[in-house]
Amino acid sequence: MSKHEDLKAEINELVCNGQKLFDAITANAKGEAQDLSFFISNYEKWYSKALPIIKQLLPDRVDDFVLLYRNEKRKKLDVSTYTISDALRCVSNSYNHYSPTSARLCFLRQVNMIQSCLETFDSKIFDIQTILQADIFDSEIESAKHLLKMGFLRAAGAICGVIIEKHFAGVCANHSIKLAKKNPTIADYNDALKDNAYDTVEWRRIQRLGDIRNLCDHNKDREPTKDEVEELIAGSEKIIKTIF
Predict the structure, then answer these.
(1) Dihedrals φ, ψ of 98, to 5°?
(2) What is the sign of the dihedral through the CA atoms of 188, 191, 196 and 199?
(3) Which residues partner with 93 through β-bridges?
(4) Fewer CB in a 10 Å sphere around the end CB: N or C, the chain?
(5) Whose CA is closest to 106, among 138, 58, 69?
(6) What are 82-124's pLDDT values in tens digits?
(7) 3-state DSSP assignment of residue 148
(8) Which residues of 39-55 are buried (b: 16+ CB within 10 A; e: fewer)?
(9) What is the pLDDT of residues 127-150, one digit of tens each?
(10) What 8-state DSSP symbol labels residue 95?
(11) How do the residues of the chain divide into helix, strand and coil, expressed in percent and rounded to 5?
(12) How far is 176 from 199, CA to CA, in rounded Å?
């Protein structure tokens, strides 16, 4: 299992365990004292695992998450300022109508935040991977331009071919498209993505870029021209910035 899958599984487990804890403190509201004991015994462990997840995936909600657990700046204790830490200490006041069950909504909000992490996890990972990959591809594009300037046309074209294939592998993953070939070519990716990621006009343009790439990679009847390699570099730049 990858680190990505491990983290997602951990978040999913936190959501499930959070629901169990919420059910326990809810049952306590019905007079089942043993369920409060379950909540008190297991909440701290849950919170210790949940807080780093919030910091990583919902950094703008960290303060909210912590305040639901403990509010050290509150000026008075009542139903509106009661926190989970109060419930863990079984703080109660029948006159002011607060008790451990008053923390139910605080905890439910925490569980909902973790649920939000699970719902946005894949999109956030995709954003991070896209940014990192884009930086790498930009650097490789610059290398291709430098090789073109130095007169190494085939090498410049070969780099662009690798960039396009790597990018299209990611695009296929985003669209849940699986290719049968172990090492697909630009043409293979292009056929698979037609009508899924772009239209026929774009497919024809990419088909030409694949032809230029093949001209650069293989010793055929003629050498690729400077104009052709420039077209391939420009096309590669457009692909990595517009097709996802």
Answers:
(1) -130, 150
(2) positive
(3) 98
(4) N
(5) 69
(6) 999 999 998 988 766 788 888 999 999 999 999 988 777 666 5
(7) helix
(8) bbeebeebbeebeebbe
(9) 555 555 666 777 889 999 999 999
(10) T
(11) 75, 0, 25
(12) 18
